[in-house]
Amino acid sequence: MRKLRLFFLPCVIGLVFVTVFLRVGGADAAASSACHWHVVSSPNPSRQGFNSLNGVAAISANNIWAVGASSSTGQAIIEHWNGIRWNLVSNPVSGSSLNSVAAIAANNIWAVGDHSGQTLVEHWNGTRWSIVSSPNAPGRDVLTGVAATSSNDIWAVGNVVSNTGRTLIEHWNGTRWSIVPSPNVGSNFNTLNGVTAISTTNAWAIGYVVNTRSNSAQPLVEHWNGTRWRTVSTPSIASASLFGITAISARDVWSVGTSFTHSATNSQPLIEHWNGTSWRLVPGPTPQLSGLRSVSAVSPGNIWAVGSFNSSSGGSLTLVEHWNGTTWATVTSPSPTSYSYLNGVVAVSASHIWAVGVASDGNGSGKTLIETGC
Q: How high is the pLDDT of residue 216?
């Protein structure tokens, strides 16, 4: 099966992963009355296999793109919302997976992932998707996140795996993609999962680094100052990983993920905020066995994050959390199956929030999942 961006987190050396979830209840659910979420029908390349959507981006309420992968076809999934329905769009390469998508204009959309162990970059010109040549470092390369400030300033991040994992950052200058040097923490496994760009001299990338001795993960945050990428310190946590990031301004950046408080199977959402000077932990709903995958902002007082949580029956359900400018709270969201995950979210406006993921039967079969709220 192709590498699908579900809710997987590093817990031991060698990238052994554990699926983690959260049980939601009590006062946290009170926020559900503020916004109604419902499932929107979405197509699948095949009735068989595992179909997952990993990222979503929007131009407007009637022009939204989602990307992912299908194990049944061995091909990336690309879907488009035209204001009425979601439709499958032809993808130019087989044996591929798309992990993230960024929208600049209706005729300028970028998606990144991997193809047979090499970086994959695709571009939409308003008529069709095509492959754009992208560089690779020695090893197995994958791109997991993409963000843009303009047609001439686009960043993509991920990792390259050889003897261990190293960060991978690439930049599009309007003509070509090139690898930009990025820091790593020691000889440990380093990877970047998400990126956001504020200006040509201000971009952030987030991920994690797995300590090969302690078998624990620590958040990895890197910043671009217009000249070079450098690591930025984050709050000390026993073990944690960051997966999603969004920027409202240079002094207002949010990142989300999962923290392991006591053991690899005891987790809760991790939320961090950059205030222009330092990163700090922000409290939110904290039941055990949980995690967040993606975050998107409408405004400083209207931010959405999504992931998944464990159910009392032992499955997993979708998780949506909302920031109202003061506190984070859980918002009720539908779960079509007993194993439902949300991997990506985009806030188009205060009245149009979209999230994508997968609804699985827990036995290797999964259907694309798209939800909208407010």
A: 84
